Amino acid sequence: MISLAGKSALITGGSRGIGAASVRYLAQAGADVVFNYHRNRATAEQVEQEARRHGTRVESRKADLSRDADGKALVEFAKERLGRLDILVANAGIWNVEDIGIEKISERQWDEMIRVNLKSVYSVIHYAVPHMIAQKTGRIVAISSTAGQRGESMHTHYAASKGAIISFVKGLSTELARHNILVNCVAPGWVDTEMSRPVLETKAGKKLAATAIPLGRAGTAEEIAGAILFLVSDLATFITGEVVNVNGGAVLCG
Ligand code: NAD
Fold it and tell me: What long-range pairs does 93-102 form, CB within 8 A, spacing at least 24?
C-alpha cells in the first residue's frame, strides 16, 4: 500500500546506518532520493548503486552539516537535481562511544555535538521549508533518540541535542500545519549500526541489550527506516508533532 512514486526525498547522513536503510527503503517505495555523506564517498556510491536498482534517481553529495552553508548547498542540490522536495529526513548525527561526565565535556565537544546533531536539523529544515510551502505539501522526519526523552547519563550533551529536536519538531508541526507540512520525530533506542556497535559488541553491551530492552536485542537500521517510511507515506496523513518510538520497549524501562 505504500507508494512514493513521483515523490522526491532528501535524507541526511544516508551513506550508512539508519540513513542508508532509509535511502534504500524510500527508493524501493518509488521515491527519487538525494542524500549526503560526510567523508566516505565510496560507501555513499555503494548505497547509490544499491538504491538505484529500484529504478529511481538516487544521488549523493558531500556535506559537513555542522556548517549551515553545507546544509543550504545540500538542499539546493536536491531541489535542482530532483525538481521538487516532498520529503526531508534529518538523520545525520554523532554520538560519543566513550562515557564522558559533565565535568569533562569541553566547550569544543559541547559545541560540536550541538552543531552536528541540532543545528544541522535546523539548517536543512530552514532551507527546505520554503520549497515545501511553495508546493503546499511536505513531510519532515527528524531523528531523535530514547536519550532525548529520558536523558542519558555520561552522554548528556548528546541527550540535550536529541531532546531539543523533539521540542523543535513539536513547535514546527503546529507552525507548518497550515501549509500541509507534517513534521514528526522517530526516536530509536539501541540500533546495531557503526555508531553503537563498539558498545553493543562488548560483553557489557550484550548484557545491556538482553536485559534493558524488553524485546531482548538491539534494533536494526531497517526497523527504524520502516517507521520513517510509514511517516512519509500516505498511510500517515493525519500524524504530525509526534514522536514515534522504535526501541523494543526500552524507553518504558527508564
Ligand atoms: P551512523 O554513525 O552509522 O550514521 C550517522 C550518519 O551521519 C553518517 O551517514 C554520517 O556520515 C552522518 N554524519 C555524521 N556527522 C556528520 C556531519 N558533520 N555532516 C554530515 N553528515 C554527518 O549512525 P546511525 O546509528 O545510523 O545514526 C543515525 C541517527 O540515528 C543519528 O542521528 C543518531 O543519533 C540516531 N540514533 C542512533 C541510535 C543507535 O543506537 N545507532 C540510537 C538513537 C538514535
Answer: 93/13, 93/117, 93/120, 93/143, 93/161, 93/195, 94/158, 94/195, 95/155, 95/158, 95/195, 95/196, 96/155, 96/158, 97/198, 97/199, 99/154, 99/155, 100/154, 100/155, 101/154, 102/156
